[in-house]
Amino acid sequence: MAKAKAAATSSGGKAAKKKKWSKGKVKDKATHAVTLDKATFDRIIKEVPTFRFISQSILIERLKVNGSLARVAIRHLEKEGQIKRIVHHSAQLVYTRVTNAAD
């Protein structure tokens, strides 16, 4: 009788509270520019050649532009001679600013 009373008071096992799973963290959608307007272009021309380390991901993060715009901007700056390539890899292109002492 004592065992039955003890079993009724302490509900163990599956009868206990069921674990609630968290819904997970939701990352905010990035709102990057997909077209190049005059203000963004001027900012790219002015600021990017002063960066010590230049890559597509750096431009996306700092200037809030699309990945394709970042690639186009990097190609344009390299063609003008304002930045120079350090590493050429199929996935990641790494550039740096042009210094007078270099070359």
From TrEMBL:
GO cellular component terms, semicolon-separated: ribonucleoprotein complex; ribosome
Alphabetical keyword list: Ribonucleoprotein, Ribosomal protein
Any coiled-coil regions, as ranges: none
Domain of life: Eukaryota
Biased amino acid composition, Low complexity: 1-14
Pfam families the UniProt entry points to: Ribosomal_S25
Biased composition (Basic residues): 15-24
Record carries keyword Ribosomal protein: yes
Keyword Thylakoid part of the UniProt annotation: no
Disordered as annotated region, ranges: 1-25
Protein family: Belongs to the eukaryotic ribosomal protein eS25 family.
The protein, known as: 40S ribosomal protein S25
